[in-house]
């Protein structure tokens, strides 16, 4: 999945998210890092993160899609965004 | 007249010929009457915040307020030359108050009209009404608690905190730790109930059900052994935050029903909602019960929805929710969670002493749903797929 290139692909989504997080969290993060486990993400920031994803990628994240597992890492957020864009019937 | 019952949480004052007599820029020796000063002090003591929206040069106007001895009463003053609707909007945004909770007083009909046009929910008053404001129902909170009396000072402490935070470089969590936060969760005593009631009335953003519980109802629930009314208060090195949350829980056999969680918007940035939820989930895990939570979406409580969802609450079906029946309010979602062990928060010290003795799970609560199925007909039964 991450071998595709160009905007809208997983790797593009991941890069976009990474630069946002590095800027916002003032620290380096990796694609697979558990952002909640490592204490980088507060519940206040969780809200910001949800809204940021919705705005940047023009998706709407509701219901059971709001589960923490979807936001744990850059990788899982990118998968969520892709799933919502593909309209694969999540949630 | 339902409008009148909505309490004003912040009054924004014009200065010239409203707060004081005279026009500063025209060189008048402006005067603050004792009667107006009394209004300011009285509203402050009731926990109503006050601010300023004035067309003046900032420095001389603020110096004048200081010389008159009232500057300390005004938060987030907007003294400049922009439209007043913008000033009022910024004040409401900074305080995170809905426009319905904000009032504006100005002697100029044009200024009132400008604010009313852009912010139709903001209540506007003329200078002639100033002395009568404390007598109006929207400026008369049902109860005035210790927390209301110190509310303005708590906000001021919070601004100092925020200033320190924006100067802080490093991860948010390190800043939170530097605050030396302490959260206390305890059963609501009679004295706390007024604070709790005030909180549910004032809290719109972080109220999970959007339901206001009256003092009478809360008192009844406190006396009801099947209900727990818990009060959450917080403090840090800048001072007390006062009562910042309330949690209403009904303990049923096999599952606990979280009917309400409301937290003050003042403590949102500390992740208070998540800390409380994780504490409750851990308590439920220890007691071997499931958790069911009511959630009603409002325009302003998405943050709370995210806190619930991120804590693990979901709409997945479970025997305990389906057997419980549908909520009386069709807009209320019933969320469910199978508790697991949660670690103590890393950003604050959590003290939960002083819980009501009835809190200690009775033996039958400490067993798991699947183990009790046969011995108690009336309890919610679990399905074979329902595992803990």
UniProtKB/TrEMBL annotation, chain A:
Record SUPFAM superfamilies: ACP-like
Coiled coil: none
Pfam families associated with the record: PP-binding (PF00550)
Sequence ranges assigned to domain Carrier in this UniProt record: 8-85
Protein name (record): Acyl carrier protein (OzmE)
Species whose genome carries this gene: Streptomyces iranensis
UniProtKB/TrEMBL annotation, chain B:
Compositionally biased region (Basic and acidic residues): 368-379
TM helices/strands, residue ranges: none
The organism's place on the tree of life at top rank: Bacteria
Ranges for region Disordered: 352-388
NCBIfam families in the cross-refs: FkbH, HAD-SF-IIIC
The name this protein goes by in its record: FkbH like protein
Species of the source: Streptomyces iranensis
